[in-house]
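Re: the 197-residue chain
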Amino acid sequence: MNDIKEKYQEFRNEPFPEGIAGEEIHGIDLVMLDADTAGLLEKFIGYNYKLTRTDFDLLKRLTVELKTVTKELNGQSRRYFATLWNLADRIVRDLTETKRLIENSDSENLHKKWRQHFDRIREILNEWDPLGVADSIEDEYDSINFAAYSALLQNGNTESVKIAIRKYLKEAMEIDETDEKLNEISEKIKNAVQQRI
């Protein structure tokens, strides 16, 4: 399983393909597909290579969507989503064979804590609301949420959170934000997670 972790970390250093932010294929939003799958891969690694039954079922569905969109893409976009598809599919096949799903109370508590952190970060991002749409689309910034929370879990500092948010804003939303604002948001995210640990 360590090679999945290594390959996933290599993959996260790849930029989101240019020119497809906001695009849909057969009704599948490519940015959300990327973010949702990445969030589940982060959970899989963070939960010691396991998933809850609910997350496992969701990853299976996302794997089908990844296969669908990959076949319709070309060039860098196709390579990017093919890599994500292969990682997700490998995890689905592994969990299908081993049945290593989270069922004990300790792991359930870990899942609840992850959900609490995710929900608090969502509140912070919706208060910031760089697109001005949070009043009507509650989960608009969940992709940033996954990126920021993942960076915090891996590195534990506000600088890594700021880098993750800036990268996502530029690559997926084509938004530039000031260092001052990104520092403020990153600090809020770090403090919110630490207060709930």
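The chain has a mean pLDDT of 87.
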